[in-house]
Amino acid sequence: MLRIAVPNKGGLAAPSSQLLCDAGYLARRESAELVVADLENDIEFFFLRPRDIAVYVGTGRLDLGITGRDLLVDSNTSAQELVQLGFGQSTFHYAAPAGSRSDVKELDGLRIATSFPGLVRTDLAGRGLSAQIVTLDGAVETAVRLGVADAVADVVETGRTLRAAGLELVGESVLRSEAIMIAKRGAELSAGHERLLRRVQGVLVARRYVMMDYDVPSSVLEKACDVTPGYESPTISPLQREGWVAVRAMVLKADVNRTMDDLWDLGARGILVSGIQACRL
Ligand SMILES: Nc1ncnc2c1ncn2[C@@H]1O[C@H](COP(=O)(O)OP(=O)(O)OP(=O)(O)O)[C@@H](O)[C@H]1O
Ligand SMILES: O=P(O)(O)OC[C@H]1O[C@H](OP(=O)(O)OP(=O)(O)O)[C@H](O)[C@@H]1O
Ligand SMILES: [Mg+2]
């Protein structure tokens, strides 16, 4: 039976469960449930703290897991990233009192508060800097105001929490994070693993793409196919009307309106867009 780690709390928990549910797996009935056996799919889901998931997967106790890239790097375990899951996006940054520092080098010798000591230690070592790392559980932005640290290194999404604490970013982001699927480094993927990954990837593609159908004069077909190259290649079908063909292609949701404008300008008509419920590509 395949054993999968899923975040039980925090911002990654709900979208992770939704992704697995959309991929056809059994959902947990209540948030207190820590293990769910999906017998039909021969999978057991373990609901764990996202911070701990890389440890379970890196040591091979569980086969696959969902966590944040920042947490994976911080854990320094022997797990590797397999798939980006398209939610939980954030950046990881140093920050200090507004107007006080402009470069990460200026943090040398200072006290830096963080919940990601492994990530920060590795980053500082890579820059040849030494600083005292003050490890806190959360709400690290307040540590400067309370005199426990001179700067922080933390997750930033909108920057609102930093600003409210009178802090501003120092330097470029250390890391761009998002939710990822991980496996033990070097572990062989069984047919069961591959099936789960294909299902998840099917959901991710269905979320990002739509299906576009349109009719176009054959004379501009090549140009139209440049506009909608599809996922692999567009399907071209004959039309009764002479000199015209029908085209069907997958298009990125984010590009739908620009694509329809471009096709219309080329002479395409009858442009229809429909959602993709599920797919295997
Ligand atoms: N505001 C945020 N926006 C996007 N991702 C975030 C945000 N805060 C935390 N994360 C991501 O969530 C993961 C951290 O999980 P964590 O267990 O700390 O949960 P959390 O969402 O911070 O909830 P809580 O702090 O309430 O436990 C990391 O991968 C981190 O990048
Ligand atoms: O840039 P923003 O949109 O303000 O989001 C970033 C904040 O969100 C997270 O905090 P969370 O609410 O998880 O609390 P925590 O720090 O106690 O984990 C993170 O640790 C930052 O503090
Ligand atoms: Mg948090």
Give a brief rundown of this model:
The protein has about 280 residues and is of the alpha/beta class.
- Structural domains: how many: 3
Arrangement of strands in the largest sheet: 2-3-1-4-11-5
Please tally the β strands and state the result.
Answer: 15
- Helix percentage: 25-40%
Through-space gap between termini: 25 Å
Which CATH first-tier class of the largest domain would you pick? Alpha Beta
* Ions and ligands: adenosine-5'-triphosphate, 1-O-pyrophosphono-5-O-phosphono-alpha-D-ribofuranose, magnesium ion
Please tell me about this protein's structure.
The chain is of the alpha/beta class and 281 residues long. It folds into three domains: 2-88 and 177-206, 3-Layer(aba) Sandwich (D-Maltodextrin-Binding Protein, domain 2); 90-176, D-Maltodextrin-Binding Protein, domain 2, CATH 3.40.190.10; 209-275, Alpha-Beta Plaits, CATH 3.30.70. It has nine helices and 15 strands. Strand 7, helix 4 and strand 8 form a beta-alpha-beta unit. The chain is globular. Bound molecules: adenosine-5'-triphosphate, 1-O-pyrophosphono-5-O-phosphono-alpha-D-ribofuranose (PRP) and magnesium ion. Belongs to the ATP phosphoribosyltransferase family. Long subfamily. GO terms for molecular function: ATP binding; ATP phosphoribosyltransferase activity; magnesium ion binding.
What does the secondary structure layout of this molecule look like, with pairings?
Blueprint: E1 2-7, H1 13-22, E2 35-38, E3 43-48, H2 50-58, E4 64-68, H3 69-75, E5 79-84, E6 90-97, E7 111-114, H4 117-127, E8 132-135, H5 142-145, E9 151-156, H6 160-164, E10 167-177, E11 179-184, H7 191-208, E12 209-217, H8 221-227, E13 235-238, E14 244-252, H9 256-266, E15 269-275
Parallel strand pairs: 1-3, 1-4, 7-8, 7-9
Antiparallel strand pairs: 2-3, 4-11, 5-11, 6-9, 6-10, 12-14, 12-15, 13-14
Helix pairs in contact: 3-4
The protein binds adenosine-5'-triphosphate, 1-O-pyrophosphono-5-O-phosphono-alpha-D-ribofuranose (PRP) and magnesium ion.
